[in-house]
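Appendix B, example 12.
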Amino acid sequence: MPIEIRPYTPADRESVFKAMTVVYGDGSPPEPEDELPSQRSHFVAMDGDVCVGFFAEFHFDTLRGAGTLATGGLAMVGVVPERRHTGVGGDLMRYALHDMRRRGKVIASLYPFAESYYRQFGYEVCGFRLKITCPKSYLPKLKPPLAIRRLKWEEFDQIKPCYEVFARSRSGLAERDGYLWDRLFGKKSKSPTLAYEKTVYAAGDPVEAYAVVSHAVDFHVEQSVSELAWSSAKGYESMLTLMRSLAANKSGLRWYEPSDSPFYFRHLASSALGEVLLEKTIMYRILNVPAALSALRTSVDVEFTLSVSDPEIPENEGPWRVRSLDRQIAVETATTADLQFDIRSFTQAYLGQPSIDDV
């Protein structure tokens, strides 16, 4: 009997949890109340009534400048140990590609366990973020140009316009819905009195920078910042002042910044004592080339042709003629191509890091 890949149904629950517990757990049976998270879609590979593999898909939009791309975020890709290296994983990945494209997704993203594995399906690393660890004595001493305040729970929405500016000035970040914001803030669903577990500090009114913090209780330990974002240089420098204050009774701080990190390029005092690491790469894959190109916006006249080699989704190959029309991008079929990409290099060039010149 051939393996069937399809959406999860409640009738699959027992078999799916048996598979998940040996892939992502210790093999213990699920509790009676355990259910798969409802905020994502789930898919299974079934051999008869036995689940041999699975994956989940988050639904959100990815920002690319002024454009917005419908996105499938893959997670929890797994195959039971006794069926690995038999092609089940590859079948799951190919099913996901075609099913997401059929449902209107323009781009897919994932956090890889091994980048080399996902490259065979057209995914590639695009951009990077820096994990910064700095002892408190090496945090810069600055005078905050903007007032810093701690937001009340009912004021958390004030940071959202700042995130919008921060995210749209870079490619590949998510356009957050309520669920994603609640994940960041640590929404408490079962507590009648505690709304969120995180603390939010903001600089300026309206907010020009913010930090989301889960305060460490002990002294002389490393304090982590869940998210730091800014819409202006004044906002960023104000938050650095807060960061130094957060570290007053700690050993240092840990946080993330994008690849244009102001701390790395302007404030790093000693890379021998602190650490700046590339961590947790994100991989992307364009699922629909003409739809992705059509989502771009331009203020100048452009016209060029390109082709994209894509063995998994031949509909992407073209050649395509791309031209501006009233600040919008029009895409149509062409006969020749000025530029030639494979799907991985096209995805990188589209998101801009590495740039089209570099790829």
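The chain has a mean pLDDT of 94. The longest strand covers residues 50-64.
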